[in-house]
Each structure stands twice: as structure tokens, then as C-alpha cells.
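BUG: 3D viewer hangs when loading the predicted structure for this chain

Environment: internal workstation, default settings.
Expected: structure renders.
Actual: progress bar stalls at 90%.

Input used:
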Amino acid sequence: MEREPPSHAADEPLPGAGSRGRCGTGSRGHWRLVAIAAVSIGGPLLAAVAFLRQEPAFYRTAVAAQDAAALDPLARRMVSRASALHAAVSRTGAWEGVISDRELNAWLATSLPRNHRELLPRGISAPRVVFQPHRLQIGTRAAVGPFAAVAWADVEVWLKGVDQVGLRVAAAGIGGIPVPRDAMLRQIAARLSRAGFATDLRRVEGTTVLVVSPPVTYDGKARGWRLESLAIDAGELLLAGSTGPRGKGAQPE
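C-alpha cells produced before the viewer hung:
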């Protein structure tokens, strides 16, 4: 009896079928890897962008709280207060001044970009300041590469002694991304130093404190005034001191 040759019809794929199957599986694997890579890279990037776009509540409130029609009158009142304080400090005797954050922010929103744009560093815009009991909350829009974010700091402020103001950063960030407090304090110290203030960074009870003293000159002349009182409450900053002959309380050069 002759044997029939074994049939492979049920076992062998049709011509070309095996190669198409392998190719399809490979394509799906390739796109799966691409998708995983996109999620791995894009996810953190999108999260970082979302964090950068976050704004602290105090900054949003300071930007949105003021009626546009009221900004100019408030800014003019700020200029009047500053001029009165300047005149008082220039005379012999005691002086004091009150600064409102509403008036200050109105000036920052209108007069600063319009008349004193050179005071804003490149990439910085819309600075705002909020006065809270014993602290300042400061925020500004800053260019971060191709993005814009709000750089902010919550700073404790107190008078350590005559002509000595202590600063401690309680919190700081760029958008929702925290920034090391000591790094922010060093930035503040650098800017104040460039403005002519004497600065001294110290370690006190495990935290860094910046001690700031006013410039030793005023309007180009040797300073004969001193800061004796500083109080910050909700919405207001109070300064008080005295002006006398050179040498009575003024810092030596």
C-alpha cells in the first residue's frame, strides 16, 4: 500500500502570511514604545508647565482687586504720601509715614511701567506687594524660558534695632514650584545691596536672616536720619524715626 505524502496544508501559513503577521506585531510594538516615551517625557513637562502657571492667592487678589478707574487716583495718593514723607525726613525732628498696599499697588500698576520702566529688570513685570501682620507678600511676573510665571515670596519683617531691619523668608516659589528660601533671601540681599542698602546674612536659630540697614547717604548728602519704628499690619506699613544733625544716631560712613 502506498503511503500518501504528509499534508502540511493545515500547518503551513499561506505564502506571505507569516511575514505580514510579524510586521504588524512589530509596528504595534514600535508605536507602543513611542507612546510610552511620549508619556514619560510629556507628562512631567506638562506637569511642570501646570505648576509654573499657578499663582499664589495673594497675587491674584492684588492684581484683580482694584477697579481700573480707581488706579490713577490711588497712584497719585501714593505719590503724595511719598512726597510728604520725603519732606518730613528732610527736616530736623520726628517724622512718620504710612504706606497703603492698595495705593502702592496702584502706583506699581500704572506709574511704574508708564514713567519708570527702567526700574524693572528685563523679563520682570506686574510687581505687587501685600502687607500682612509682620510680613510682606511680594510677587511679580517673570519670564522663565518660553514661559511666564509668578515669582513670589512671603517675607517676615521686624525691626531688630535702630536702623536695622530683619528679614526672613517664610516661603517662596516660582508658580507652584517651591524655591529654596535661602536662595530667595540671597537674591533679595543682592538687589538691596545694588540699591545702596547695607546687608548682612546671618544664621539665627537654624534659619538664615537678612539684616538690612538704610544707606548712609540721602539725596547725595551724609544721612542724619534714623529709622526707629517699623510696623506692618493688614494693608498698611508704618515707618517712624527722627532726623537730626549728622552724628546723632546716623550711621558712620
